[in-house]
Amino acid sequence: MSSSKSIPLTLFFFFFFSLFLHASNAAGPLNHFCFNPENYTASSPFGANLNTLFNLLSIRVPPSGFGVVSSGKSYNKVNGLALCRGDVSTTNCKTCVVDASKELCNRCPYNKGAIIWYDNCLLKYSDTYFFGRIDNQNKFYLWNVNEVENPRAFNPKVKELLSSLSYKASTTTKFYATGDLYLGVQKKLYGLAQCTRDLSSDNCKKCLDGAISELPNCCTGKRGGRVVGGSCNVRFELYPIVGSNA
After folding, report:
1. Where in the sequence is the domain holding 112, given as residue range(s)?
2. Using CB atoms within 10 A as the burial measure, which of 6, 99, 118, 239 is most buried?
3. What InterPro entries does the database record attribute to this sequence (predicted)?
4. pLDDT (0 to 100) of residue 4
């Protein structure tokens, strides 16, 4: 069963303020969930395997921006993945993955399943095997408090742009796409769509299309917004989201 969650208002304001300042990853995570109530002990084999997984992800992910790792066997096995935004440099990707690992340990101590998102990356681990499956459980919304002047005309443009990026992202190797759409003279709408690369192309598009369909839950008539999940995310803004839309 799918569940959706909204971030605390204070974190929401901090997020958008940090965007305007072009804040680095050090600004802190966007959100996190400790989604498995089962715990492990610090000296357990699971804890050791989790530390190994974090180390491996910090090595394997930065060169391509994505990686999956499993560490250990049987009951003590832990599975994890990390994804960096498609335009993030190798250096910043590594920094984000390392920070995400440390922050998850602080925010979800001894939890056997957790996920965290930064603007530059996401990191997820679990004692259950989740690779290749769309994560409909871990999801939240972000939105701009300001509204557009003509929502009736604006909302279809958001859907048009993001739907095109959903197709584009699902048919590219990196499962990542950005683009823009003219709304009038000297005014553009910018969009982004990305999936974790453990998904199939069909499941990537399914995930993105599902995220787009949830935008009315949070972002109707807003000047910017996004649906962020454990397998994919979509975003729109009235200012450039990344340095280049290539």
Report:
1. 5-131
2. 118
3. CRR_secretory_protein, GNK2, GNK2_sf
4. 43
Cβ 179 vs Cβ 235: under 8 Å:
no
The pLDDT of residue 242: 87
DSSP 121-148: EEEEEESS--TTS---SSEEEEE-SSB-
Partner residues linked to 78 by β-bridges: 71
22 and 119 in a single domain? The answer is: yes
In whole angstroms, give the CA distance from residue 35 to residue 21: 31
Predicted TM-score (pTM) of the model is 0.87
Tell me the per-residue pLDDT of 138-187, one tens digit each, with 9 for 90 and over.
999 999 999 999 999 999 999 999 999 999 999 999 999 999 999 987 79
Label the pairing between strands 225-229 and 232-237. Answer: antiparallel
- Does one domain contain both 146 and 56? no
Cβ neighbours of residue 163 closer than 8 Å, sequence gap 6 or more: 209, 212
State which of 96, 112, 131 marks the end of a domain.
131
Same domain, 11 and 127: yes
Instruction: Judge if 125 and 17 occupy the same domain.
Output: yes
Structural domains in the chain (count): 2
